[in-house]
Specification:
- The chain is mainly α.
- The chain is about 70% helix and about 0% strand.
- It has a two-stranded antiparallel sheet with strand order 1-2.
- The protein is globular and about 120 Å long.
Length: about 650
């Protein structure tokens, strides 16, 4: 019918339409040539964009439905629908409080990201378009929930800049008005805030960062949740000074740029500047002198990390034995590197101009150095950040591969070390017994020359061989029990080494020391668990910088153009970035129908970024080919059949050939 009406108006011609328009006192969307153009444009829009508009409206309906389901769950808890559970009992359970806090947090994230990426005017036009389309053709959708959707999509008073949605840094909006449209029960929200203040909802994070100096990083995920949930409790932000001081002391004592979700960041100095209690609590952190102290401390930490990374990444250093012996030091190095990276990447994006000048200070002489300047203004450039990021990701990749291999080969390492240690004890028993040794290999026995017979030591080493043979990897004992038994054997060997007969014998002392090392390898191998990889996943989390890192692409391209060997560092860098999507897809992929689509979306974003970074590789390759071609065609002189001796050096052109 709509097409027929368009064709009919087209057949009537513009003259009749103008007459009708003049008689009607003005033109409209259905009259005159202008009206016909608008009708055709609307028809084209409906045909070409109806699917997109419907998808956006379904998104808005789903957001409203999430709030409905969450509110119903809270009401059911308060009414006693779940007989043995209340809000308080759920929040006292480790898993329950994590899920409840995340549920409230995700509701706030939906509102914040919607306001950031789809500003109010855009949402209003989408809803109006959907309403007109469905009003004309009801088969396109359902408008039974239009009132709730309109309440959600109504524009807020604050208009963000035109480019705000393209930035990964959140622009302040009127969250109070936005969150008040679909509130949650105030008592429930205050219980959630109290739980976040008094409990650690992510126990693994405190295991990954056990030091008290790293407390704010260990609680960074919880701090993001608290930042969002506090918008449901505006009274605390405005009036409750004591509560906001405790929030800042626990979560934001040394940082003020917080990761919200999916790479979106927020500056608390700007976001909380509108709320009295929150602004007063942050005043001590945002002072220029306090920021300068944090900046200098971070610059020194980056310098320390760069030195440690170069030492560990030296060829041949990260062997299995070295990793087992220095596991604690290696993990501490990774902690320091990631803490330094997180603070520097986030706070280079601060919205305060004065603070940004402190953090993004440039070297006075303009020189480009490989390490930060650890004096004067303590300048840390973007190039230094990228160097630290690439080296850190390389160490993480190598350590993860090594630990995975060690986990797969734990039993083989145990058996090999046990066999060698037992053989050494048998050799020593035979050595002090005056015989040839009954359990060792020929090479080890040959290394020991005969000594006077010593029955006591011979019997002791034979008993120690039996003790080592009694150690079993599959005995069913707890790891701690096996470790204690191995430690007892190590202590016994240390004590026997103090005996005068053993201490004066270089060969026996060397065997005892090697056997002790084998026992320690057994203890360290059996002590490795999958928890090490879980800790490394928390330590190496890069979700906060998944959007910020896009601003560093030009720096990466410049490094690769200058030194193509830097391409070898990109594999670890991409693997580190790939873990940033684990958080957003953790819940959707646990059984929900749309989980595959969410995973595909984040995978496509990562692939797009990888292509952007690697686009410099063919450019560099062809630039090198052009240089080679120029040397061949223009600079190298053709060699004649006969070259005079005095001109041989000029024809050699050693400089050009060296460049080639």
């Amino acid at each position: 019918e709509y097409e027929a009406s368009l064709l009919a108006r087209a057949r009537d011609g513009p003259g009749e339409d103008r007459g009708k328009t003049a008689a009607g006192g003005g033109g409209g969307s259905n009259g005159g040539p202008g009206g016909l153009d608008l009708a055709q444009l609307e028809r084209e829009f409906t045909v070409n964009q109806s699917k997109t508009v419907v998808e956006f409206y379904e998104l808005f309906e789903s957001v409203v439905g999430y709030h409905t389901d969450l509110s119903s769950f809270v009401d059911d808890l308060n009414r006693g629908y779940y007989i043995r559970h209340t809000v308080e009992s759920v929040l006292s359970d480790e898993v329950g409080r994590r899920l409840v806090c995340e549920a409230v947090y995700l509701w706030g994230v939906l509102l914040i990201t919607m306001e950031h990426y789809l500003p109010g005017p855009v949402r209003e036009r989408l809803v109006i378009s959907y309403h007109r389309m469905v009003g004309r053709d009801p088969s396109l959708g359902d408008i039974s929930k239009i009132d709730s959707v309109v309440a959600l999509c109504r524009s807020s008073a604050v208009r963000p800049p035109a480019t705000a949605h393209r930035s990964s840094h959140k622009h302040p909006a009127d969250e109070m008005r936005l969150f008040a449209r679909f509130p949650l029960p105030s008592d429930f929200v205050r219980n959630v805030v109290g739980c976040l203040l008094s409990s650690d909802i992510y126990r693994r994070s405190t295991t990954a960062f056990p030091s008290i100096d790293h407390r704010s990083v260990a609680l960074a995920g919880q701090a993001s949740i608290l930042y969002v949930v506090l918008y449901f409790d505006p009274h605390a932000l405005r009036e409750e000074n004591a509560k906001m001081r405790s929030v800042v002391d626990r979560f934001f004592g040394d940082n003020w740029v917080v990761h919200v979700y999916g790479g979106l960041t927020a500056d608390l100095g700007k976001e909380w500047g509108r709320y009295g209690a929150a602004r007063a609590a942050m005043a001590g952190v945002l002072g220029e002198e306090s920021v300068r102290v944090l900046h200098v401390g971070n610059a020194k930490l980056i310098g320390q990390c760069m030195a440690e990374l170069r030492a560990y990444l030296t060829m041949g250093i990260l062997t299995d034995g070295f990793v087992l012996d220095n596991r604690r030091d290696l993990l501490n190095c990774l902690r320091r590197c990631n803490i330094a990276l997180r603070w520097r990447i986030l706070h280079r994006r601060t919205a305060d101009v004065a603070l940004r000048e402190i953090i993004c200070a440039k070297q006075a002489d303009g020189a480009l150095t490989t390490d930060p300047k650890l004096e004067g203004d303590f300048a840390v450039s973007e190039s230094h950040v990228i160097s630290l990021l690439l080296l850190t990701s390389q160490l993480e990749m190598q350590l993860k591969d090594t630990f995975r291999q060690l986990l797969e080969r734990r039993e083989d390492i145990w058996s090999s070390c046990k066999t060698r240690t037992s053989g050494m004890m048998s050799d020593l028993a035979g050595y002090f017994g005056g015989g040839d040794g009954d359990g060792g290999s020929g090479s080890r026995a040959a290394a020991l020359s005969k000594v006077d017979r010593h029955e006591g030591l011979s019997d002791w080493f034979a008993a120690m061989a039996d003790e080592v043979n009694a150690l079993s990897y599959e005995s069913g004992e707890h790891v701690t029990v096996r470790g204690r038994r191995i430690q007892h054997c190590v202590q016994s060997l240390e004590e026997i080494e103090l005996f005068d007969v053993v201490d004066r014998d270089v060969q026996a002392r060397a065997f005892v020391g090697e056997a002790r090392g084998m026992l320690l390898q057994m203890a360290r191998a059996v002590g490795i668990s999958s928890g090490v990889l879980d800790d490394m996943a928390w330590i190496s989390d890069m979700s906060y910088g998944v959007e910020c890192i896009r601003s560093y692409v030009d720096i990466i391209h410049a490094r690769i153009s200058k030194d193509p060997a830097n391409v070898s560092l990109l594999q670890g860098f991409f693997l580190k970035l790939s873990t940033s999507s684990d958080g957003p897809i953790e819940r959707p992929t646990s059984g929900t129908p749309g989980g595959a689509g969410v995973s595909d979306y984040y995978s496509s974003k990562l692939i797009s970024f990888v292509r952007t970074v690697l686009s410099i590789v063919p450019v560099s390759v062809f630039a090198i080919i052009v240089q080679m071609s120029d040397i061949f065609e223009r600079r190298l002189q053709p060699l004649p059949l006969r070259v005079p001796v005095e001109k041989l050096s000029s024809f050699a052109q050693l400089g050009e050939r060296y460049k080639l």
